[in-house]
Amino acid sequence: MMKVSVIGTGSWGTALANVLSENGHEVLMWGKTKATIEEINTHHTNEKYLKDIELHAKLAASDVLEDVVHHAEIIIIAVPTKAIRSVMQQINQVINNKKTFIHVSKGIEPHTFKRISEMITEEIDIEYMEGVAVLSGPSHAEELALKHPTTVAVASENETIRQIAQDIFMNEYFRIYTNDDLVGVEIGGALKNIIALAAGITDGLGYGDNAKAALMTRGLAEITRLGTRMGADPMTFLGLAGIGDLIVTCTSVHSRNWKCGNMLGKGLTLEEALSNMGMVVEGVRTTEAANEMADAFGVEMPITQSLYKVLFEGLDVHEGVQNLMNREKTNE
Ligand SMILES: NC(=O)C1=CN([C@@H]2O[C@H](COP(=O)(O)OP(=O)(O)OC[C@H]3O[C@@H](n4cnc5c(N)ncnc54)[C@H](OP(=O)(O)O)[C@@H]3O)[C@@H](O)[C@H]2O)C=CC1
Ligand SMILES: O=C(CO)COP(=O)(O)O
């Protein structure tokens, strides 16, 4: 059994830390909100993020980053993409030996187009970096916390790290597949959130399964186009981190991206929809990044580009759908 640290006490960090504790590892979580830390340590719950779930009795949390970083050689990073750089900079201030980072976040940084593993590598001094991996796939925290069968991929350029990640997480309800396509697994997890927002919008507008199936299929085509341009293996997008995660996020009642899109389809503004959520909706910022990337690399991404106009330029959602349907005739 191993010591593992988990950075982030939100829904995904808590669900994964709970699995690691269930698997017998000695887990210490870090979060910035004292009340959450106290609740985890005292009541073994995290009601804001994982309602009605009793956490493993040995799962512990702290708001002292230094203690959590020094606790283990394996560090799980589970904060929203927007917080990655600042959290990694704080970790770099207190780190004192080599660590393996396994991140579970789904996004791309606007303007720089950096993936999460690239941001982590940039922010941690090289002498403290053992390696980095991503864990991603169709997995809502709410279901994993209930021990419902869940499968994900873990990708790293380093085979030993892939195997360590597989070994620490895997159990009878959480099945981990290794994958050597770090770029593809990160890009698939990030870009599916854009399509889930769009699927939420068409559901909110009252369109049915035809529209959603169209978005998922044509969405996968544009994810694959941008992903391969970034160096991913196109086959990755037919796996858990591609189509698998696209299915779960576009069809699940748990998806924050789908829920946010649904509110937009029902007429709420982006600001209103986001303030109703209270949890991270990664797809909004990723749409900004992917829209810039589509322009910069000359990759055709009509769904992403229409959604960008809806989110950031005030395009009416009905018009967004009409624009997509009335594009130039083309081959599949
Ligand atoms: N939820 C899920 O089912 C899944 C989520 N993911 C991905 O995991 C990542 C995290 O998501 P999730 O756990 O759901 O998000 P939540 O919104 O549930 O929680 C976010 C967590 O990050 C913390 N946080 C936010 N900003 C900062 C900051 N600047 N510094 C330190 N901590 C910060 C929050 O702290 P506080 O509470 O103190 O504000 C909170 O603990 C996302 O990229 C998401 O896409 C991936 C698969 C499944
Ligand atoms: O990535 C996820 C499921 O695999 C979580 O999706 P949401 O952020 O839309 O809830």
TrEMBL record:
GO MF annotations in UniProt: glycerol-3-phosphate dehydrogenase [NAD(P)+] activity
Active-site residues (renumbered): 192 (proton acceptor)
Amino-acid positions noted as binding NADPH in the UniProt annotation, renumbered to this chain: 11-12, 32, 49, 106, 141, 256, 280, 282
Residue sites binding sn-glycerol 3-phosphate per the record: 106, 137, 139, 192, 245, 255-257
Glycerol-3-phosphate dehydrogenase NAD-dependent C-terminal domain residues: 181-321
Protein task: Catalyzes the reduction of the glycolytic intermediate dihydroxyacetone phosphate (DHAP) to sn-glycerol 3-phosphate (G3P), the key precursor for phospholipid synthesis.
Name this protein carries in UniProt: Glycerol-3-phosphate dehydrogenase [NAD(P)+]
Natural source organism: Macrococcus armenti
Organism taxonomic ancestry: Bacteria, Bacillati, Bacillota, Bacilli, Bacillales
Gene giving rise to this polypeptide: gpsA
